[in-house]
Amino acid sequence: MGWSRTYFLTTDRLGFSQWNEADLALAMTLWGDPRVSSLIGGPFTPDEVGERLSREIEMMSAYKVQYWPVFSLQTHELVGCAGLRPYRSDEQIFEMGVHLRPDYWSQGFAQEAARAVIDFAFETLGVQGLFAGHHPENVASGRFLPRLGFRFTHEEFYPPTGLHHPSYRLMNPRALLVPRS
User: Ranges for the N-acetyltransferase domain (predicted)?
Assistant: First the structure.
């Protein structure tokens, strides 16, 4: 059930698009799947998935970022979503997240999508840093984030799960360069 979309960002295997109001059925295949949503506060009802989709669309309108839908360039199927949302706006730090459909787990898609988001955040948007957290039971994310260069900083309470999640930061290497006098 794939179809071609317009992509604003691509990798070797993935195309990043934007959510729109017509994407509820697509969003259901991602956030409506309890295997995807169980570690981010789900499972979600169809109404909750619709609310999440609306929040992503509003995020794009307000901040020019969202957890963008990501598609296979080969099959045009939805792989998942990956993107940004404001975290500490005053410090130009955004939260990065990746949610994949189970058919795409353990194939390197999360790393490929995350690296594209990191490059986009630092090189195109010029953000100062990125924040990411994960459910304490999500061991794979605990290994994944450090491989991307994120460093553990603290435990942060995440209201949707009611738990403290391991939390990480990755600073923009360009932001860390001090001009020489």
Answer: 14-173
> For residue range 123-155, what is the model confidence (pLDDT) as tens digits?
999 999 999 999 999 999 999 999 999 999 999
Q: Strand 14-16 relative to strand 67-72: parallel, antiparallel, unpaired?
A: antiparallel
Q: How far apart are CA 96 and CA 129, in angstroms?
A: 10
Determine contact, residues 112/12, Cβ cutoff 8 Å.
yes
> In CATH, what number is assigned to the domain containing residue 56?
3.40.630.30
Residue 88 lies in a domain: yes
How far is it between the farthest Cα atoms of the chain? Answer: 58
Please check whether residue 3 lies inside any domain of the structure.
no
Parent domain of 29? 9-171
CA nearest to 11, candidates 135, 131, 98, 103: 98
